[in-house]
Specification:
It is a single-pass type I membrane protein. Its main location: membrane. It is found in: Cell membrane. Among the domains are: about 100 residues, Sandwich (Immunoglobulin-like), CATH 2.60.40.60; about 100 residues, Cadherins (Immunoglobulin-like), CATH 2.60.40.60; about 110 residues, Immunoglobulin-like (Sandwich), CATH 2.60.40; about 100 residues, Immunoglobulin-like; about 110 residues, Sandwich (Immunoglobulin-like). The relative contact order is 0.04. Strand 35 and strand 36 form a beta hairpin. The two termini are about 90 Å apart. The chain has five helices and 47 strands. Strands 40, 42, 45, 46 and 47 form a five-stranded mixed sheet that branches. A four-stranded antiparallel sheet has the order 1-7-10-9, with no helix packed on it. About 10% of the residues lie in helices and about 35% in strands. It is flat, with a radius of gyration of 68 Å. The C terminus is likely disordered.
């Protein structure tokens, strides 16, 4: 059995494993069972961290029952740190730690030990596992999780109000001794704050801490291990504590009386002055509201609060007049917006002050009696007629004289003028209501003593109507009468218009002019409703005798003075059917009836001319002959392109393509010579030398090639570029002759294939197949 021994102090029984014990039990028959007794085996070591000795720190010793002390046993150590942190003596089994160990880095190590035969490396016993635990020592001081801490607590808080909790941690073993037991204490910050020694909770220790007196505090907290005993390690942190504001201070005016001066010409909504109340609080606790609680000029002023500066802004709401009131007195109150009921006893949270506003005199421009003037004048008024007057005065005490004038930008035609001294407005030119019924001008009033003081007032002048326009036809009538018309037949109803506007409305009277009454072919009948009917006075009319009649119609109004005018009505004679519908009129009448003006006829004529020009141009283009194309064919070659996906035979395929098909048959002439070669008429064909027959050249093959070369040189259909022609000509006198069986006239038995063996290794297979004796083939 492998045993482990240590020289350390006795370890509790819980750290031991009892491998084998002696028990006495009985079997089913009551016979006692007996086991052999074996010793205790240690499986756990303890080692102090941070060893400072000069020698290696001894851990323990391994010993095997098989070890007889003859050196045949070798002890082996494996596991965590084996060979680096822990070293074993192979002969004696002593285990030492080679380095200082830190429990905070690793608290325990698991190792395996075994004893083997030094010579055969066979295990003498099974492998044993044991643990080396590192005993903690107080080598780490407490550390706070933050440094510094930031905290806030309301001012004026009661004693014991929680502020913040600080936490310190100790890396030492909390389960072993007091090395990690931390106690908190306060080093700086008394007597304002205290700290709980166990939890680290900081609380207020002094009542009535005022932010306005002192706002920030620095508190130093210490955390000490070993339960605070002497020799323990400690760490500190700083806690920055800020007193947050509460509304414990009321607003106060710096003065009881404020005085402002303001010119009387100040515009409405302008700021008269600013007042400010002081509040020692900050933020929303310092927000204030101002209001006027008393004034000798109700509604003259108002006060608002500027939220960014907390100023009281005094604003003018009604116009000031130095001559009427020269001084105003206001009573103003300021109050906090957010009031804390807890501090009502420290109130009241409001204050009051008096504001005196003095109005200063300003040289003001003249003031008109009215904001605007409306005047009326008849359109037939004579020049220099006074139509009204305006009046302005100087509001100042000096009461300066006023001079009047008209702003000519509002009266560009100089229709009106004004008396500079009394403000009387009169006309300079004749008026026409039908041209302009209203005139809007601007009158200027200027002080004599100070011409820069100017004021204006609008003057609206209405031109009254006078009956000065005669009525006329309401429209241009185009009237016709049928040749077969009957007497007293109404052929047209006419009405009138008048630019005048009488108060009672228009009333028109229609009649036939006196000069046409005796020989009239038509009559006029007044319908008494501002319209009149035109009637025929005979049964028939003849357009050949007279195609156009002019009927003078007199139109008069019922106003005073009466106005009248003579209007001529043109009547054309036309041919009509039985129902009175026009069928045919003379050209002039028809044109007028159809409503075609001269401009319309000209437009129609231009359109016809343009159409004729387009037709002529199109015909001329069609007469032009087209240029004869290069290829004359009944069919367009572009529509006869046929694509094939066939693969050619390569250079030896001479029958797949004929270049002659691409040529125009009509363009080929027998007498034309090729342009890519020299004509034979000037230079005779070159006679190529005939090579003498040799052992390597067959004469029939040479003759065949020369013949084909001559044919190609003299071929007029050959392509105009170099080309390669390949011919499959075997030649005469071949030793192998033809291999084709089509030309064979002998039977298989008449052939002699022994020569195949002389052709080399490429024909060995054929020689073997056909080159044997007949007896071999038969067998």
């Amino acid at each position: 059995m492998l045993k482990i021994f240590t020289l350390q102090k006795l370890i509790p029984m819980t750290h031991l494993t009892k491998s084998v014990t002696n028990y006495f039990r009985q079997d089913a028959n009551g016979v006692p069972l007996r086991r052999s007794k074996r010793g205790w085996m240690w499986n756990q070591f303890f080692l102090l961290e941070e060893y400072t000795g000069t020698d290696l720190q001894y851990v323990g010793k391994l010993h095997s029952d098989a070890d007889r002390g003859d050196g045949s046993v070798r002890y082996v150590l494996n596991g965590e740190g084996a060979g680096t942190l822990f070293k074993i003596d192979e002969k004696s089994g002593d285990i030492h730690a080679t380095k200082r160990l830190d429990r905070e880095e690793k608290a325990y190590y698991i190792l395996h030990a075994k004893a083997v035969n030094r010579f055969t490396n066979e295990a003498l016993e099974g492998e044993s596992e044991f643990i080396i635990k590192i005993h903690d020592i107080n080598d780490n001081e407490p550390r706070f999780t933050k440094d510094p801490y930031m905290a806030r607590v309301p001012e004026m808080s009661d004693i014991g109000t929680s502020v913040i909790q600080v936490t310190a941690t100790d890396a030492d073993d909390a389960t072993y001794g007091n090395s990690a037991r931390v106690v908190y204490s306060i080093l700086e910050g008394q007597p304002y704050f205290s700290v709980d020694p166990d939890t680290g909770l900081i609380k207020t220790a002094l009542p009535g801490m005022d932010r306005e007196v002192k706002e920030n505090y620095q508190v130093v907290i210490q955390a000490k291990d070993m339960a605070g005993q002497m020799g323990g390690l400690s760490g500190t942190t700083t806690v920055s504590i800020t007193l947050s504001d509460v509304n414990d201070n009321p607003p106060r005016f710096t003065k009881t009386l404020y005085e402002f001066r303001v010119p009387e010409s100040t515009e409405l909504g302008s700021v008269v002055g600013l007042i400010r109340a002081m509040d020692a609080d900050i933020g929303e606790n310092a927000e204030m509201d101002y209001r006027i609680i008393g004034s000798d000029g109700p509604g003259m002023f108002d006060i608002t609060t500027n939220r960014s500066t907390q100023d009281g802004v005094i604003v003018l709401r009604k116009p000031l007049d130095y001559e009427r009131k020269r001084q105003y007195s206001l009573r103003v109150q300021v109050e906090n917006v957010h009031i804390n009921p807890r501090f009502f006893s420290m109130g009241p949270f409001r204050d009051e002050a008096t504001i005196k506003i003095i109005v200063e005199d300003v040289d003001e421009p003249p003031v008109f009696e009215r904001a605007s003037y409306v005047m009326e004048v008849k359109e037939d008024a004579a020049r220099n007629t006074v139509i009204g007057s305006v009046s302005a005065s100087d509001p100042d005490d000096k009461n300066s004289l006023v001079r009047y004038s008209i702003d000519r930008r509002t009266d560009m035609d100089r229709v009106f003028n004004i008396h500079a001294g009394n403000g009387s407005v009169f006309i300079l030119r004749e008026l026409d209501r039908e041209e302009n019924a209203w005139h809007n001008i601007s009158v200027i009033a200027t002080e004599f003593n100070n011409p820069r003081q100017i004021s204006r007032v609008p003057v609206y002048i209405r031109v009254l109507d006078v009956n000065d326009n005669a009525p006329t036809f309401a429209t241009n009538y185009e009237t016709f009468v049928c040749e077969n018309a009957r007497a007293n037949q109404v052929i047209q109803t006419v009405s009138a218009t008048d630019p005048d506007e009488p108060l009672g409305g228009h009333r028109f009277f229609f009649s036939l002019a006196q000069e046409a009454a005796g020989k009239a072919n038509f009559s006029v009948r007044d319908n008494k409703d501002n319209t009149a009917g035109i009637l025929t006075r005979r049964n028939s009319y003849n357009s050949l005798q007279k195609s156009i009649y002019h009927v003078p119609v007199v139109i008069s109004d019922g106003e005073f003075p009466m106005q009248s005018s003579t209007n001529t009505l043109t009547i054309r004679v036309c041919t009509c059917d039985r129902e009175g519908n026009m069928k045919l009129c003379n050209t002039e009448a028809l044109t007028a009836r159809a409503g075609l003006s001269t401009g319309a006829l000209v437009a129609i004529l231009l359109c016809v001319i343009i159409l004729l020009m387009i037709v002529v141009l199109f015909a001329a283009l069609r007469r032009q002959r087209k240029k004869e194309p290069l290829i004359i064919s009944k069919e367009d070659v572009r529509d006869n392109v046929v694509s094939y996906n066939d693969e050619g035979g390569g250079e030896e395929d001479t029958q797949a393509f004929d270049i002659g098909t691409l040529r125009n048959p009509e363009a080929i002439e027998e007498s034309k010579q090729r342009r890519d070669i020299v004509p034979e008429t000037f230079y005779p064909p070159v006679r190529r030398p005939v090579l003498p027959p040799t052992r390597d050249n067959n004469g029939d093959v040479r003759d065949f090639i020369n013949q084909r070369l001559q044919d190609n040189d003299s071929d007029p259909t050959a392509p105009p570029y170099d080309s390669l022609a390949t011919y499959a000509y075997e030649g005469n006198g071949s030793v192998a002759e033809s291999l084709s069986s089509l030309e064979s006239v002998t039977t298989e038995g008449d052939q002699d294939y022994n020569y195949l063996s002389e052709w080399g290794p490429r024909f060995k297979k054929l020689a073997d197949m056909y080159g044997g004796d007949d007896s071999d083939r038969d067998s």
